[in-house]
């Protein structure tokens, strides 16, 4: 791992390691992970633990019915939230018993991260905990989150947290040794990819699903997380969390899995937050991909170039500008609601259109992130 003066490591641990049998928390795999955290702190690293597992840890408290086979979707969701509430305290207690230093629970939703003021508050809180020798244990707040508010997986959450605290390294635990060129559970000849310097379509093509049936993330979400982290200059490791040797190798400065090299030219902090953390609420399709080649082009898009408005969003919400051939061009703050933009897009009267748009462009100039047309989507579209 990177050994510069001030070290912050974010370690992500999944549900299959916390509660492998969904019968409450188990120390079977967690002891070696806890020892890794202790040794990191002894060597001067500041550690943040992003820990999944509240639902898996709490499932045994609800033996009458399973959230996976409840017939009513609303009841199924409520049951999972209840499991998360019961399991979160058990999970925190399990982690706490491994350490002779204090821990702190930090529960987040995507709404916390995408709001700039709350995002900065999270960063300050985590930094203060670290500076006082307290181990932050972060999880998504599954008890209260909704589809609109959730991150969805703790792989991507860990990358957002790593960027927020300006971590040097992100370690994501998996059920396999790292990224392979094909699924090692299905292909005995699959080869481990030890290092990745550029994440592109070929890297995503190698990512298959997770073998575990306990967690919600797979290799795809881990690559998405790595893409977020490396663009902030954070070295990212995907390692086998079931093997104690993985953590021993990391402490020896070795790479036991797949290392994604952090960018030598990381994004500016606010631009990274806007690109990789803020979620787009809709899309605006413009006449051609040539309409957007720079941030200035985004600001200067005319209403006559708007072909279609997708989704429902308010003035000030984030949108993605797309070309009519489906390429994602830029992410920006909309100066108009979706309802007003849809009305404007249908008008043929240029004077009427100008009466709406003469004072300001389609998008605000403050937050604009240009997107590579061929890049993997930065977030799943709902």
TrEMBL record:
InterPro entries named among the record's database cross-references: AceGlu_kinase-like_sf (IPR036393), Asp/Glu/Uridylate_kinase (IPR001048), G5K_ProB (IPR041739), Glu/AcGlu_kinase (IPR001057), Glu_5kinase (IPR011529), Glu_5kinase/COase_Synthase (IPR005715), Glutamate_5-kinase_CS (IPR019797), PUA (IPR002478)
**Ranges where the Aspartate/glutamate/uridylate kinase domain occurs:** 7-240
Note the superkingdom of the native organism. Answer: Bacteria
Q: What is its main location?
A: cytoplasm
**Localisation per UniProt entry:** Cytoplasm
User: What EC designation does it have?
Assistant: 2.7.2.11
- List residues binding ATP: 12, 174-175, 216-222
Q: Which amino acids does the record list as binding substrate?
A: 52, 142, 154
Tell me the route in metabolism or biology where this protein functions.
Answer: Amino-acid biosynthesis; L-proline biosynthesis; L-glutamate 5-semialdehyde from L-glutamate: step 1/2
| Stretches assigned to the PUA domain | 288-346
Keywords in UniProt for this one? Amino-acid biosynthesis, ATP-binding, Cytoplasm, Kinase, Nucleotide-binding, Proline biosynthesis, Transferase
For this UniProt entry, the molecular function terms from Gene Ontology, in alphabetical order, are: glutamate 5-kinase activity
User: Which reactions appear under catalytic activity for this entry?
Assistant: L-glutamate + ATP = L-glutamyl 5-phosphate + ADP
Flavoprotein: is it a keyword of this entry?
no
Q: Which family does it belong to?
A: Belongs to the glutamate 5-kinase family.
Q: What does the record give as the function of this protein?
A: Catalyzes the transfer of a phosphate group to glutamate to form L-glutamate 5-phosphate.
- What's the name of the protein? Glutamate 5-kinase
Task: Give the species this sequence originates from.
Answer: Shewanella avicenniae
């Amino acid at each position: 791992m990177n050994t510069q003066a001030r070290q912050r490591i974010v370690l992500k641990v999944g549900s299959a390691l916390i509660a492998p049998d969904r019968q409450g928390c188990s120390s079977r795999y967690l002891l070696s992970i806890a020892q890794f955290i202790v040794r990191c702190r002894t060597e001067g690293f500041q550690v943040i633990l992003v820990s999944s597992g509240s639902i898996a840890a709490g499932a045994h408290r609800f033996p009458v019915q399973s959230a996976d086979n409840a017939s009513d979707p609303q009841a199924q969701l409520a049951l999972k939230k209840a499991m998360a509430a019961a399991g979160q305290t058990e999970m925190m207690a399990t982690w706490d018993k491994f350490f002779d230093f204090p821990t702190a629970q930090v529960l987040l939703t995507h709404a916390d991260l995408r709001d700039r003021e709350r995002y900065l508050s999270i960063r300050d809180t985590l930094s203060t905990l670290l500076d006082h020798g307290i181990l932050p244990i972060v999880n998504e707040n599954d008890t209260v989150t909704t589809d609109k508010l959730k991150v969805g997986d703790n792989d991507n959450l860990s990358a957002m947290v790593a960027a927020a605290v300006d971590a040097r390294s992100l370690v994501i635990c998996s059920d396999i040794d790292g990224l392979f060129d094909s699924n090692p559970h299905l292909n005995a000849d699959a080869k481990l990819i030890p290092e990745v310097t550029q994440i592109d379509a070929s890297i995503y093509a190698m990512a298959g699903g997770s073998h575990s049936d306990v967690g919600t993330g797979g290799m795809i979400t881990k690559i998405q997380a790595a893409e977020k982290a490396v663009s902030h200059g954070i070295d990212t490791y995907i390692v086998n969390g079931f093997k104690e040797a993985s953590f021993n190798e990391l402490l020896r400065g070795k790479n036991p899995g797949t290392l994604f090299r952090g960018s030598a030219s990381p994004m500016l902090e606010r631009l990274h937050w806007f690109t990789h953390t803020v979620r787009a609420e809709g899309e605006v399709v413009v006449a051609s991909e040539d309409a957007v080649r720079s941030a200035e082009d985004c600001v200067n898009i005319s209403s006559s170039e708007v072909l279609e408005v997708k989704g429902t969003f308010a003035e000030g919400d984030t949108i993605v500008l797309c070309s009519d051939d489906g390429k994602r061009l830029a992410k920006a703050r909309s100066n108009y609601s979706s309802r007003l933009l849809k009305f404007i897009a249908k008008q043929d009267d240029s004077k009427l259109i100008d009466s709406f748009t003469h004072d300001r462009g389609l998008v605000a100039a403050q937050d604009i992130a240009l997107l590579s047309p061929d890049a993997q989507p930065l977030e799943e579209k709902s």
